[in-house]
Design brief:
With 365 residues, the chain is mostly helical. It has 14 helices and five strands. The radius of gyration is 21 Å and the shape is globular.
Length: 365
């Protein structure tokens, strides 16, 4: 291994014919974030109607605790915590990609209408085929479990296609996506899809509408291994693609002209980033409902603590996982005897942050 160059605290190392940029600060932040996520994960599994000591949580995870503890940990609490980690990571990376592609901290999937489109697609499936999990039983519930992710992802891509179609500026030949047009088109479509969701709930069956209403808040309650399986498979495909595209983020952060000068195909890269981001958002919504503001807040928090040229994907994923686990923890402890949806906690935190970003951007003009 050879040290090629040193710029500030960053190092460029060469191993054989390959070179790699090492950022010590990013490594330190990611290590700390891994510890935070692991600590929150254990606490989320331990807390419930019955407190399970931390050592029993660890033994129950590998199946060597007593039988009731093994059952509670492995069947109920472990899949819920795993879904929290995966959904938080998926939403955060989705937000990081859209913010990087548009160079706008407001351009998160839940602001530009993508998660609202995913919600509409999922609600159509819920109202058409019934229950949201296998636990409700029946052929309709089985079809719902299969169709819910498909409906959510399809809704996300329909919303994304509409946003990009409205935002594309073809005045100079090839379509280009300005940040202002993407955000404005997204806000309009977000309102339209929310209106369609409310119309579907008002006109659908009362029982199914009430189940869909609970899901629409965004919650980890009742999540099982069937949710983990689909989510993990989708992320196993999408996350490597996102990381492969990640080396373009720093170039896009410099602006379209500078990115083109560096040899980055700007429009094609933007479209690929949007596609991966929207698939991640749709998959996350299918698993836990539209948990707002994680995609908006997590990438910006990660970017500020890592201090990297572009939005850091790994740190964003870890920050998103930590935010959602913390929100779920607060939601379960805030009102004794009652469990709030995690989405309500993220909304309470995210709404002031969104207001701060808008006021800050206005102050710069």
């Amino acid at each position: 291994m050879t040290l090629l160059a040193q710029s500030g605290s960053d190092l460029v190392l060469r191993v054989a014919r390959f070179s790699v940029l090492v950022r010590p600060r990013a490594l330190l932040v990611n290590t700390v974030l891994c510890g935070v996520v692991a600590a929150l994960f254990v606490v989320v599994v331990a807390i419930g109607t019955r407190w399970i000591p931390i050592d029993d949580v660890l033994r129950g995870t590998v199946g060597v605790a007593d039988r009731p503890t093994n059952l509670i940990v492995q069947r109920f609490r472990l899949p819920r915590a795993v879904v929290g980690v995966l959904v938080g990571a998926a939403l955060a990376v989705s937000g990081a990609l859209t913010q990087a592609a548009t160079r706008n901290p407001l351009a998160a999937p839940d602001v530009i209408g993508v998660t609202a489109g995913a919600s509409f697609g999922a609600v159509v499936v819920l109202l058409a085929f019934g229950g949201t999990t296998f636990g409700y039983g029946g052929a309709a519930a089985q079809l719902s479990s299969v169709g819910l992710p498909i409906g959510a992802v399809a809704g996300a891509f329909v919303a994304a296609a509409l946003v990009l179609g409205l935002a594309a500026n073809r005045r100079y030949g090839a379509p280009r996506f300005t940040t202002r047009r993407v955000v404005l088109a997204g806000i309009v479509l977000h309102a339209a899809f929310i209106g369609l969701v409310h119309w579907g709930l008002a006109s659908g069956d009362v029982d199914q509408a009430s189940k869909a209403q609970v899901w629409l808040v965004g919650t980890l309650h009742g999540r099982g291994w069937e949710h983990v399986t689909g989510l993990a498979l989708a992320l196993a495909v999408l996350m490597p693609v996102a990381l492969l595209l990640g080396h373009h983020l720093a170039g896009l952060h410099l602006g379209e002209a500078s990115a083109a000068t560096l040899g980055i195909p700007v429009v094609r890269t933007q479209l690929l980033l949007f596609c991966v981001a929207f698939a991640l958002a749709g998959t996350a919504v299918a698993a836990a409902g539209p948990v707002d503001f994680v995609a908006l807040v997590a990438p910006q928090v990660a970017w500020r603590i890592v201090r990297s040229p572009g939005v850091p994907l790994v740190a964003s994923a870890l920050t998103g996982a930590a935010l959602l686990l913390a929100a779920d923890l607060v939601a379960r402890l805030l009102v004794p005897g009652h469990e709030l949806p995690a989405g309500s906690v993220t909304a309470l935190v995210g709404a002031p942050y969104l207001l701060w970003v808008i006021l800050r951007s206005e102050g710069r003009r």
